[in-house]
Give the backbone structure.
Amino acid sequence: MDWSQIRALFPAAERYTYLNTAAAPPLSLLAAREGKRYYDEMAEHGDVRWESWLCQAEQIREKLASFINADARGVAFTYSTSHGMNLIAGILDHCGDVLCPADEFPSCTLPWLQQRYRVDFVCSRDRGVIDLDDIQKSITANIRVLVISFVQFATGFRQDLVALGRLCRERNLIFVVDATQGIGVFSIDVVNSGIDFLVFSGYKWAQAGYGVGGLYLAPRFLSPTSFPGAGWWSARDPEAVVNDRLDLKQTAAALEVGCPHFAGIFALGGALTLFEEIGKLRIEERIHELTDYLHHRLEAERFNIASPLKREQRSGITIVEIHNAPDIVKCLAEKNIIVSARGKGLRVSVHIFNNFDDIDRLIVGLRELTSMSRGDNV
Ligand SMILES: Cc1ncc(COP(=O)(O)O)c(C=O)c1O
């Protein structure tokens, strides 16, 4: 499949100049059809397909596990990052204090605060870079958990997970990663990076829509009796409907306390199939190529980029420094150009359905809207 064939799988990419994956991208037809298939089958056949849906969900668990180089026994489906993060905070049961970047998205911090953990914050540097030395210096005797996003939502800074994992091992910290803004476009290897817990929401770079997410637990945390909750579906044999004693699944699936959200899981399966067909390295290279072009065009028009410029720190997110970003977002939307206002200005994100023409249209739109306020800047 070439990039124009891939783009054709995303009808929204023809209707809009869609540069807003960091908020939520359109689904591919593959992912949408998979989700819809569940509702169609439910409408046509009721629950007759239940067993088959369960089998399919397990195949998607395997697919997700292999996508992040995990063992499927350590993978659970969730509804959101916040859901997964609350589970992790519950599993860790006040083992110590938490360290987090100051710019983190609230899904990474509020679950810990609500569960009465102490949370310390590390400030970022210029362009949102979170320096390893700064993290190291912030590790006090009581810190036991490092919670960090793979890619920061308001700057686009991408962590070096291998380096962070090494630091966590050296300092005996539990390493918790929110991959929501990176999974799907940048490779994640939970084993190689020494990740203890990984969470993500499906509705951003994973292109699976709202209501589905994933949670990975390293083998040393796979102890279902210490999980923070259980339901009939957590039982080793749910259909036995035993209600007077605990006999739990010995896998992360014990965290799925009730019936599965099949539509979301199937959509995630469809999205992962597309990523696999294209190839991880090819996707990563494409995101870099589009971002190179975006940066080049922005710089030529003298816009300031507030995101990292080095490839190894970059992601699919670029923040353009701009005054009145919310107004600019509205005006661009009137031209069918979809971006958002975040961090120091405009958040522009590129995914596999974008092309160079999208970026050209954004630049023309931005030029028209900002030439007055920038005094034409030339
Ligand atoms: C880094 C990050 N994590 C998670 C989320 C979404 O959280 P949730 O899945 O809890 O809605 C966002 C949304 O912007 C985000 O930027």
Notes: The two ends are 42 Å apart (CA to CA). The chain has two domains: 3-19+280-370, 30-276.
